Amino acid sequence: MHSKSDIKEWMKENGKTCKWLADQCGVSIHTVYGWMSVRREIPSKSLVRIRELMREAAPSLGAVKGIKAGSLKALQLENTILRAYIALHLNPGETLDLDEWIRSSVGNK
């Protein structure tokens, strides 16, 4: 079951507003405000609907357009992917000088 904080986070991540949720659940926006506060519980019927909405709105991976290998756009994309990969493997707060890392990697061959 999703908590209120899970629902709020999902709405924020997916660009959904309380007005949108109210429309989807067939209630007033003030009812949704009440649900999101500590003063009211979300009725089970509405929770079922919210779960359905959360399942339906799986995040899109976006569109991908083909690009010529070796082009500037391809190099920019490779750079972005490399930076994302490295960032995921660094410890929080840790930094890596990419120029230095590349020089040391190429120099070892």
Give a written overview of the molecule.
The structure is a single chain. It contains six helices and no strands. By secondary structure, the chain is mostly helical. The chain folds into two domains: 4-56, lambda repressor-like DNA-binding domains (434 Repressor (Amino-terminal Domain)); 72-107, no CATH class. It is elongated.
Q: Helix and strand succession?
A: HHHHHH
- Name of the level-1 CATH class of the largest domain: Mainly Alpha
Name the overall outline: elongated
- Uncertain parts: none
Cα gyration radius (Å):
22 Å
- Shape-level CATH architecture of the largest domain: Orthogonal Bundle
Major sheet: none
Strand content: under 5%
Strand tally is 0
- What is the subunit arrangement here? single chain
> Which fold name corresponds to the CATH topology of the largest domain?
434 Repressor (Amino-terminal Domain)
Report how far the terminal alpha carbons are from each other.
Answer: 53 Å
User: How many DSSP H or I helices?
Assistant: 6
Number of structural domains? 2
Share in helix: 55-70%
GO molecular function, one term: DNA binding
InterPro entries: Lambda_DNA-bd_dom_sf
